[in-house]
């Protein structure tokens, strides 16, 4: 039950208790009043009966006295029963029983008796209490209606407070609250607003730290890739040159068969290490991003998979029109993250599913970038690990999640509409200089 209904139920309970208590007091007072009225009427009947009988024989009998129209009184001759009360204006039996006042009787001189009957008095009490109950009911209904409006207006700021807290949970820290003039709610709103400011500052700081970490990682990877290319590549090339020279020398001699065989093995090993170094270089630092804008690098990435898997329908789209140029102008950390997301999502789509169609879409707005990779494969199978080993070389799902969170974004993996799997990420788009530029200025 809502707080509003609880307050109204409490008010209704108080009104009910007050009505019951007031009714009990009125019934007790009515009982005493009816008894006093009966005693007074009986005394009046006694005096009237004695005054009449003192003059002699009562002409017309008790009927003459009853014809006087005295309320509550009835005169009876001899041992005749008093007879029932008139039915007109009688109160309900349960109310008569609640008043619990029985008829009172007094014997006069001779065989004349006077009976005081409470029926008329109880009927009057019932009529008064009925009118009062109707008035109380009307007032109670009006009071509840007024309380409904007043409580609703007083609790209206709580709905706005709830909406503000919901926005805080969704990451919107712009907290504005109108307390409606309630001091307690104003203090609560002020505290939550201060908390929202603290959360916003903490998130900005975490985002800055995350960007600096990602930028540092990318810089380190760039250095490692350069070292591998310059040092390891040169060493492998020297091995290939020496092994080729050795092979040519061995081929010119009759006893050079073993030397030629060893030279061939050296060449094969050098070729394998060269291929390995190229794969490591691609994983550490995609060369396409150093040579092409992001939109063209993604087009080349999808085109490479299109050539490898011609039986799959590949789609790459940028929204809105002109988004490709905006993507190319994003900071380096964001561009690299977007490229890695698409790269790893395509690998996972082909590794864990047999899709017939794969769609890549990117949307850029003023303050955020959204990327989604959708396939029409069988979807996520039960028991399939939700991510690769974070310690292995590469950029698995866990690595994607960490990198996206470090930039202040969110990553979701789930079923796609119509079947298959959808990997989507939403990343904030900084409005100022890149994290790399900030690092350079700090240095």
From TrEMBL:
MF GO annotations: 4 iron, 4 sulfur cluster binding; metal ion binding; phosphorelay sensor kinase activity; protein dimerization activity
A Pfam short name: HisKA_3
Catalytic activity: ATP + protein L-histidine = ADP + protein N-phospho-L-histidine
Keywords: 4Fe-4S, Cytoplasm, Iron, Iron-sulfur, Kinase, Membrane, Metal-binding, Phosphoprotein, Plasmid, Transferase, Transmembrane, Transmembrane helix, Two-component regulatory system
GO cellular component terms attached to this protein's record: cytoplasm; membrane
Broad class of enzyme this protein falls into: transferase
E.C. no: 2.7.13.3
CDD domains tied to this protein: HATPase_UhpB-NarQ-NarX-like (cd16917)
Named cofactor requirement(s): [4Fe-4S] cluster
Protein name: Oxygen sensor histidine kinase NreB
